[in-house]
Batch of 2 targets.
Target 1
Amino acid sequence: MAKTAAPPKASSAQAPGAKQPPSQADLSERVPTGIEGLDELCEGGLERGSSVLCMGEPGAGKTTMMTQFLVNGALQQGEGGVFLSFEESKESIIRHSMSFGWDMAEMEKQGAVAIINYKPHEVKRLAEEGGGMIWDTISETGAKRIAIDSLSAYVVMFESQYQAREAQRNLFELVRKWGCTTMLSGEAAEIGGHMPAGMDYLSDAVILLHHPRQRNVRFRAIEILKMRGTNHSQKICPFEFLPGSGMRVYPGEDIFEEFKSREGF
């Protein structure tokens, strides 16, 4: 992989929370995901500074999609990124990324991305500190994009449902203060399933990754359930993950035609 220039570094003298929330002008600006076919579904990309909830069952591809969002930001747009994981280790994230040709270890050395892993016993400290270490990383790297994996793992670390919901709300408030365009993952059942209460209304956008089974075959499909301020597609589109490339969405294809061709109807 070619060397990646590190994004401009912001002053670390800013206090946590000092970054101004995105203005209306910022929100009208589109942030390309760089994922082929996806930006066509949402007027060229995500709203700058918005929080985007990526939902799907385990194995649907949420982590890979968010990683590609960060990598493309650094390589294509010169925007630094932070990957915050509550589950997968840093070593695992780097290893799995290599299968798509993304050398995140090298990118981290150059300051283009930063990978932070919180152990279970450290999660509550994140809420108590107001994300101090993450804010420091954002300030040091000049990050514009954040990926958080996953909300489901984050909320289970709290003892009661009330504490979990408050922690979830606080995390979204922190995300808004950081002012970055943010993708957060969360688990949901297959098509027709329900999302954990509260996750959807706290976010600015919800993207569903479906991984349904038709007889003995599984398919991948993507749907934008909501995206504020965006005339987004209402269509459920097929997608796939390609080795050495990553996620590719097919806006012009019909997922139900895919069912028929795979099943021989």
Note: The first strand starts at residue 30 and ends at 31.
Target 2
Amino acid sequence: MPSKSKNIQAHFLALFTVLIWGVTFVASKILLNESFSPFEILVLRFAIAYLVLFAIRPRFIRLSSLKDEIPYMICGVFGVTLYFLAENTALVYTLVSNVGILVSVAPFLTALLMWAVYKDRPSGMFLLGFLVAICGVMLVSFNGMHGFDFSFIGVVLAILAAAVWAVYSVAMRRINDSEQSVDMILVTRRIFFWALVSMVPLLSVYGFDVDIDSFSAPSTWLSLLLLAVGGSSISYVTWNCAMKVLGEVRASAYIYAVPALNLVFAAIILHESITGEALIGITLITIGLLISEQRKRPATLQVPRIVEAEQAYDPTGNR
């Protein structure tokens, strides 16, 4: 069992990660407004992220067989390529608020998948925290809007994004269980490698038409570096480290905070308004996150009774 200091450090890493992911929403919005497509942003983001991690650790993980490679392939395809394609495409068909709500069920789906694969049954506190937090996410995501603009394709894609993130979490459990001593930077970089490999066949579908003039504005470079270095190179490493200590289910609960952080940073940087119901939502998300992080205490052993019973027995017959 991890020490108390490691647990505190892991909580800090998880919180730091969602803080970075909260501000990357603004960076993505800037690049989209500058005529970059979602797929072009995806390729550039993780290509730069891979190079950054390679510069930090110019070494490779040695795996004994193809079977050991499979979890890395799953993490790259599901946790990077499919997740961002599903989420960004969902935004084409439905509102950002709807996608934010639906993607926030990722912790719940992660808990269910962990239960199915590893027999780790989610606690009642986790489920209660999920219900409280998802109510907060709904208030934050709507932020003064009214109604749910239903789009079947958009809803399916948003839920698919949450589901593939759950698959990523399960695959990371396999990596953490089998590679206890491997540097997490090397692990994350290998995941990015398979993500980039899986993007190659998609070039003919989505296209990649980026020229040098696209990077003339400073806001473009700053936004892209924030996504690649902060939102990918650093954040995936810190997130994977947090999952290794806290466990995939407990760490995933921090995803509830992403919509609230998106709203706060959008208000600070893009000067978007925050309503009273959104502030209530942020409060509910915080409460739900705290509830989800509660762990069931093990039952106390009745040691005194056992000792007392042993003292009561005397083979010599003396009482």
Note: Confidence is low (pLDDT under 50) at residues 298-315.
